[in-house]
Amino acid sequence: MEIVKPLNENDIDPSLLEKIQFFKGPLGVIPSSVKTMSYHPKIANAFTDLNKAVMECKGKVTPEFKRLIGYVTSFASGCLYCQAHTILGAERFGCTKKRLDEVWNYANSSAFSNAEKAALDFAFAAASVPNKVTENEVSQLKNYWDEYDIVEIMGVIALFGFLNRWNDSMGSALEDLPIEKGKKHLGENTNWTPGKHRV
After folding, report:
1. CA geometry: angle at 64 spanning 62 and 68, to 5°?
2. Helix axes 147-170 and 80-92, enclosed angle (nearest 10)
3. How far apart are CA 190 and CA 104, in angstroms?
4. pLDDT in tens, 63-114
5. Which of 2, 8, 86, 136 is the most exposed place for a label (fewest CB within 10 A)?
6. DSSP string spanning the chain?
């Protein structure tokens, strides 16, 4: 289903290739989406900088929880590619098996605090089309998170809004590692498959 084949690493400008090695830290791979963005190096550069900025944690929102926010955002939008990548990222940042296995059903899970549930409710509503954020989601979010944390939470939601559109529309092919984690933590509970994102 790929519209554009990702560039081979030896076809990517060496300075850009060095920069996008960053993704191997949180994901263990350079995503095929970033290799596709690399046809237009300014897009790949800007996206990498945005990803680093959004995933930098200065408040109470942890690296692990940011990936779970990304998962719920991607679950709401239906992007199977990003669901697998965020589950992989959350695991690499120390997420427990219970949280990985139950994030799709966080509202009914004892593995998530009320503060986390408020953030994930907001993420789900914000990622829905049309947008479903109401005063209720905002009020709950503000009960637990300060302005700085809310901006970090919204940054993750918006980043994955871009990624969900990119990967679902481009038919980005999933790499082996995220496929493995998607099957392990999502397959049985949400009937997750790679879908159109198979190589």
Report:
1. 110
2. 130
3. 8
4. 999 999 999 999 999 999 999 999 999 999 999 999 999 999 999 999 999 9
5. 8
6. --SSPPPPGGGS-HHHHHHHGGGHHHHSS--HHHHHHTTSHHHHHHHHHHHHHHH---SS--HHHHHHHHHHHHHHHT-HHHHHHHHHHHHHTT--HHHHHHGGGGGG-TTS-HHHHHHHHHHHHHHSSS----HHHHHHHHHH--HHHHHHHHHHHHHHHHHHHHHHHHTPPPPHHHHHHHIIIIIHHH----GGG--
The Cα 171–Cα 196 span in angstroms is 6
Ordered domains of the chain (ranges, CATH): 9-55 (no CATH), 63-197 (1.20.1290.10)
pTM for the model: 0.96
Q: What is the mean pLDDT of the chain?
A: 97
Q: Which two tokens stand for residue 150?
A: 């809310």
